[in-house]
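Example 3.
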Amino acid sequence: MKLGILVNEGPYQHQASDSAYLFCKAAIARGHEVSRVFFYHDGVNNATRLTEPPQDDRNVVQRWSKLAEEHGVDLVVCVAAALRRGIKDEVLAPGFRISGLGQLVEIGIEADRLVTFGD
Amino acid sequence: MSDQKKFMFVNRKAPHGTIYALESLEVVLITAAFDQDVSLVFLDDGVYQLKRGMQTKGIETKNFSPTYRALDGYDVEKLYVERESLEARGLTEDDLLVDVEVLGRDELSTLMEQQDVVLSF
């Protein structure tokens, strides 16, 4: 199955990004395709490479980057939501790109399922 | 991209206090621009998004109520409000700033089952 993912919450404050990541890992392990993860609302805060969690905690941002690198998952950050929150190209972690909401609608159309993580 | 899918936006939050309602509207407008079959549902505190007479000056946030009135200009005409949510908050259809169809919870769940994509904000 071809899956699209929507992440609506920031890292650490909320479980949404963790759950989305674990869902993606499990889906890929089962042979499904996760073609795009779209970050919206405070979810755009998952994309900044300036994030530095304590050493004994998981690195949410790096996990997403690694997923993109290993499985070719397209990590898209909404431009309007990002600019509102100070997320720009110069702070993006590897594998993320900034684009428009059209990318969310497109994956909604193309994927078999669009799965939302958030409040 | 000739496919047309049925997109339903489920609005569950009060208009202010969090940014969900405002940013949800942005997705709605883009989805309509992609010529998709768009419908909106308002339930729980989301019914307050359509409350008439919103004034936001005191909290220094943008009043985006007028956008709901403009939706039909984008061919977004299917607006549903959950009856139970209205009643629980002492509201009636007359309190709302646009024409909507008021449906019961059971009818809404039937409608949701018919969708291809359900986005909940």
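The domain at 2-117 of chain A is CATH 3.40.1260.10 (Hypothetical Protein Ychn; Chain: A,). The two ends of chain A are 25 Å apart (CA to CA).
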